[in-house]
């Protein structure tokens, strides 16, 4: 499962985002994206790692209606793979679409035509998602991005990023092949080895045959961390799910193990431990 992040990762990060292919917007079809997540930390000690993972890319309306029609993937019940409503959104088991529409309404964004969630599905009933991403589509253009961040202490915060509306103007070229760049101040304590005074710089495009997302964290306008996920699209079928299970056994357990394993290595490098601050008063922000 483990693979070293390539040496080509630089402090500035790679903000190129690829959405190549001729199969059309993957927002038109549920899928798996199989690839690798990589982290490269630059201060106060360098630290790099990479792991093979896969994510599910699912239409939220299909998820709410439970209309995938698969034997190996269930909604809100145990299976080899499952997605549970209480893991995302309001985290109370309610449907995702009304919750997401309400978040977008606060940011003065009308309900999108489609919303797709990118997340780790549960395997044998277990999953931990450090980051869940929602792509909001108006036609074939991204009207907003929503980033749901969670830490191992049980806290979470959702960043809503409008890509159209009064604050940013009309959509301008946010099509299937267009890179979107947007920033947000850090509001949730994620790592006990990183301070809160930081800013996230997100880079992504509408997923297609390939999905690539890069998040660069800076402090005092200097590079601190670059995290990325890149995956190749596979159709959401029982055969693809079985193949993902065989090639990534117990992946969701390994995600949690890897988080603590890498944290231990950072601690042994002498990076100061930062006490967990009080979580933010609100669970979401859009500015």
Characterize the structure shown.
- With 287 residues, the chain is an alpha+beta fold.
- It has 4 helices and 14 strands.
- An 11-stranded mixed β-sheet has the order 10-11-12-13-1-2-5-7-8-9-14.
- A hairpin with a 5-residue loop joins strand 11 (199-204) and strand 12.
Protein traits:
11-stranded mixed beta sheet, 3-stranded mixed beta sheet, globular, 16% helix, 287 residues, disordered N terminus, alpha+beta
Output mean pLDDT. 87
Helix content: 10-25%
Q: What is the topology, as strand order, of the major beta sheet?
A: 10-11-12-13-1-2-5-7-8-9-14
Strands, count: 14
Tally of separate helices: 4
Total tally of structural domains = 1
List the helices and strands in order: EEHEEHEEEEEEEEEHHE
Radius of gyration, Cα only, in angstroms?
A: 18 Å
Shape: globular
Strand content: 35-45%
The major beta sheet can be summarized as:
11 strands, mixed
SSE inventory with pairings:
Elements: E1 31-41, E2 47-59, H1 60-65, E3 73-75, E4 81-83, H2 96-106, E5 114-119, E6 122-123, E7 131-138, E8 141-150, E9 156-162, E10 180-185, E11 199-204, E12 210-219, E13 222-235, H3 238-247, H4 251-268, E14 284-285
């Amino acid at each position: 499962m483990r693979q070293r992040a390539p040496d080509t990762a630089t402090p500035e990060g790679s903000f190129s985002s690829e959405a190549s292919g001729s199969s059309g917007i993957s927002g038109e079809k549920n899928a798996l994206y199989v690839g690798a997540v990589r982290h490269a930390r630059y201060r106060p000690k360098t630290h790099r790692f990479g792991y093979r993972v896969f994510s599910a890319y699912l239409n939220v309306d299909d998820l709410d209606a439970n209309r995938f029609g698969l034997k190996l993937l269930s909604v809100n019940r145990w299976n080899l793979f499952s997605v549970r409503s209480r893991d995302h959104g309001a985290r109370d088991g309610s449907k995702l679409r009304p919750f997401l529409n309400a978040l977008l309404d606060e940011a003065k964004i009308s309900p999108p035509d489609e919303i797709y969630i990118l997340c780790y599905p549960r395997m044998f009933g277990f999953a931990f998602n450090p980051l869940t991403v929602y792509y909001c589509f108006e036609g074939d253009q991204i009207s907003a991005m929503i980033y749901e961040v969670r830490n191992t202490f049980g806290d979470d915060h959702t960043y809503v990023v409008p890509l159209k509306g009064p604050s940013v103007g009309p959509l301008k070229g946010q099509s299937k092949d267009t890179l979107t760049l947007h920033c947000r101040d850090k509001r949730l304590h994620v790592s006990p080895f990183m301070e809160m005074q930081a800013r996230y710089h997100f880079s992504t495009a509408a997923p297609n045959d390939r999905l690539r997302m890069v998040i660069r964290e800076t402090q005092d306008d200097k590079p601190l961390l670059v995290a990325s996920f890149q995956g190749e699209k596979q159709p959401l079928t029982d055969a693809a799910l079985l193949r993902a299970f065989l090639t990534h056994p117990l992946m969701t357990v390994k995600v949690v193990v890897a988080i603590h394993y890498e944290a231990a290595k950072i601690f042994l490098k002498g990076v100061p431990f930062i006490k967990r601050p009080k979580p933010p008063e609100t669970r979401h922000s859009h500015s």
